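Table S4 entry, APC family permease.
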Amino acid sequence: MDMSAGGRKGLSLFALIMIGIGSIFGSGWLFGAGAAAQVAGPAALVAWVIGVVFIGMIAMSYAEVGSAYPIPGGMARYGHLSHGPVLGFLTGWAVWIATASLIPIESIAATQYMTSWSFDWAKGLVDPATHQLTLSGTAVALVLTLALWLTCFWSVQLLARANTVLTLVKFAIPVLAVLALIGSGFHTSNFTAHGGFAPYGWPAVLTAVTTCGVVFAFNGFQAVVNLGGAAKNPGRAIPLALVGALSLGLVIYLALQVAYLGSVPPELLERSGGWQGVNLNSPFADLAGLLMLHWVVTMLQFGAFISPAGSNIANVASAAYMVTNLAETGFFPRKLAAVHPRYGTARPAMWLNLGFSVLLLLTVGRSWQALAGVVSAAMVISYLIGPVAVGVLRRTRPDLPRPFRLPAAGVLCPVTFAFAACALYWSKWPETGKITVLTLVAVPVAALVLWRRGELAQGGAASGRGGRGASLLRQFAPAWWMVLFLVWTATVSALGGREFGGRGLLPGELGTAVIAVTAPLFYFWAVRSGVRAHARGLTGTLSPAETTPAPTVTADDGRPMVSV
């Protein structure tokens, strides 16, 4: 993944689709079906459909912004371009946390699947009572994280060339697993026994969307947006790659979920007291072992290394792009954006991401399920700026070349924002509170950086009145909507229904209704703030090195290339 300007163009549409599919089929398919079934029962199938609709709406809003501003790692910059430096850092911080967190979670997935090995030491990597990594399991996950990071550090170009092959292997393994599990004996009674199709109610289905790896799995779309700036024709390639990767991903994930639900032995369901009691360390490998499908177990053990390793090629590159974008806006040290002259990689950024990965492993990364919930909530926060940026730029930059335009954006953007707000609420308390605090840590950091600059960006320097304090307040004005939105959502989550982890003061679906009704108000406030930020000259611009070439039209493609 070449970080240099000269290496940013040339990805074909097929290669971009392969990147998207490769990211979608990471560790999510290894655990998502089992985790979703445990929370929602057979109704987990609905969770996958809701998840892909939600992610598809988010992805299409990013497709418009991403095709207009085809910046590698651009999701960390769009807030700056639409609202200015403070919101840019706030959203960029959230995007970086969500992206960098994917690196250790893939190693955790591989470690948990190692418990299906026949070696005694492997079975001790996960505590059978708590289903969390033991001390030795954490050590193995650390070793795997470091090994993969070093491989990308020294040989990222080699891995990038091998990505298509890895993706095809990753695609073949779940397909073969589905066929083998269904062919070994399919129990249709599992879909209605032990409480029916939705034994734990529809709130459990909504919770499964954000806490059981559904959003986590489809989050692979970010790799297309973040690396789509390196495509030959970003305006055409980004939306087509998003549709192709998400559609194929949904088909495979639904097939995996059906195979898992129908292959669980009825006696195991009976003995476990229903789906909530079926808790397998390595869901598909353990299930294949119960069914005496030893060749499938071996294949899955192999896939447990191939899938995470292949996904982390894009994860490591995307996380490095996030850091370099934040460094280019001045909120991270500019030394982090330094690119190695020979290897074309931002090595200081990679070192920062490695340190963050180790920190996560040693604190909250005790199991794939535990870390996936936190990561998914961070991902949802990172999605918020997409539809908002579309609304702002449609008003402030109407003449900006947009090779892809989101249809009915006036309706879809506020609806998409409300959907994202509900998904954050469904993440359940206290995860919503934890990720809100982690995101809002960026606020005092932004204030300190702007204060130390003296010349507080364009808006502060231009006004010349009130000194640093007044200029600082002007810089923060376009970002207050995000701060209050996160505080509001976390508060409703804490008071919401017990099925969503709250205190029960807003029982049932009342909490979801409150979020759904108030979210559009925050959306229109956000758009208005962005328009004002543009009028005051607070928003960011691209450097000449980041802009794309002038529009060109080829005989086989009548669409112009992007020009910023």
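Residues 68 and 233 are 11 Å apart (CA to CA).
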